[in-house]
Design goal:
Layout: H1 3-51, H2 56-86
Helix pairs in contact: 1-2
């Protein structure tokens, strides 16, 4: 076995390990970003409802819709990270 083939095999194994670590890091960032986004949405919605109680239903429905979009983006990011991890 030549030296070049040994080096290439070792670097391929190391690249697979780095890909798994990168996928875990990406999933963590996606979850943290979604948590911060939903927290900001909730606090802003509660502040808006406190200022204008008569618009509570409109604000609440907008809050739920926006939180669903943020959660959907985080879900897709986690799916992509899992695809990198297992494929």
């Amino acid at each position: 076995m030549s030296t070049l083939s040994i080096i290439l095999q070792t670097s391929a194994e190391a690249a697979a390990q780095w890909a798994k670590m990168g996928a875990a890091f990406g999933a963590g960032i996606a979850v943290i970003g979604a948590a911060l986004g939903i927290g900001r949405i909730g606090s802003s919605a509660l502040e808006s409802i406190a200022r204008q109680p008569e618009a509570a239903n409109d604000i609440r429905s907008s809050m739920i819709l926006t939180a669903a979009f943020v959660e959907g983006v985080a879900f897709f990011a986690i799916v992509v990270c899992l695809l990198v991890l297992f494929v």
